[in-house]
Amino acid sequence: MLALLTSAVIVSDGRAQQAARQSAVTVDPADGSVHVPPLTVPFSSFASPEAKAAFLGYLAKPWPHSDKIGELRDGITAYYRPYLDRAEDLYPVTSRSETIAGVHVDIITPAGGVSPRNADRVLINLHGGGFMFGAGIIGALESIPVASLGKIEVVTIDYRQGPEYKFPAASEDVAAVYRVLLERYKPGNIGIYGCSAGGMLTAEAIAWFQKEKLPAPGAIGIFCASAGGWSGGDSGLLAPILDGSPVSPDLPAPPHPSVGNVPYFSNADFNDPLVAPIRSAAVLAKFPPTLIVTATRDFALSSAVHTHQELVRLGVDADLDVWEGLDHSFFTNPDLPESKQVWDVTVKFFDRHLGRR
């Protein structure tokens, strides 16, 4: 009985504190901005213990920074190397480098070979990395689990990035590789997916294919991104806070709110559907079946949800999968149970859709 009374007091006290905080919340009647007093947000009770441990580990592992692009790319490679080593242990594959239509690619094949079911299918991966880094290392992290679990070949493209190159260089590279693969595979048997910058590039590639009169692939995956960037909305503001990132109110507004200050897009017009397909209902309506993956602490959550809403409104077959308590591109850590769930969903999605058309 004493335990029940004590519990009731604690709950009552917690509600009182919550009520006090809520009473201090104000809304600006001019623009609808909500002013929230300081509060504590516990790590999600729905995320795995491994995800919580990884979150604390991330805080102790500083993200690479450098004004020199070569040093930044080297730092990113070193940062992700332990994850890649672990992925190769968990998901046996073979990898070889090739050049297709003048574009460097890595071809990832399951160690036991491609299954008979997938002999006439292929996946294209477009790696993340803010259109600045990620070639090789992040592409492998996004491709190895899918190739191994799905028993399918994955071609990860080392597309041109900034600051050396500008839009539409990456779209041109994806189209060049896609054209060559069309000589071997039916378009309906080709899938394309990517995370963050690669997710946005996946959407841009579909718009570019339409411009070039190329047939649409059988299905696509837009992960931790949208058909118009990876930021904006509620999550663009809240996710970096929940991720433990320092917040500076003095930062200048980015030139492109949907992607921030990304050199690759320095000369791009975000009203152009080739840059942001979300700007054109006509372009979006022609998208193939689309898998959208994000998480509640992903700064791309809001933009991803918005893209899903628009695709569904236009009659496109679109799935939205959101992982609770996880952050941006969390599945590059292969030890998280949630990462395995993402790759299982991905494999099943493409298996269901490739070859249907």
Describe what you observe in this structure.
- The chain has helices at residues 2-24, 49-59, 69-90, 137-150, 169-181, 197-211, 233-242, 281-284, 301-313, 337-353; strands at 26-27, 34-35, 93-100, 103-110, 122-126, 154-157, 190-195, 219-223, 290-297, 318-327.
- An eight-stranded mixed β-sheet has the order 3-4-6-5-7-8-9-10, with helices on both faces.
- The protein is globular.
- α6 (197-211) links the parallel β7 (190-195) and β8.
- With 357 residues, the chain is of the alpha/beta class.
- Residues 1-12 have low confidence and may be disordered.
- It is built from ten helices and ten strands.
- α3 (69-90) runs parallel beside α4 and α5 (169-181) crosses α6 (197-211).
User: Which sheet architecture does the biggest sheet show?
Assistant: 8 strands, mixed
SS field, number of helical segments: 10
Number of strands: 10
Tertiary shape: globular
β-sheet strand percentage: 15-25%
Name the average pLDDT: 92
Low-confidence segments, given as residue ranges, are: 1-12
Distance between the termini: 65 Å
Quaternary state reads: single chain
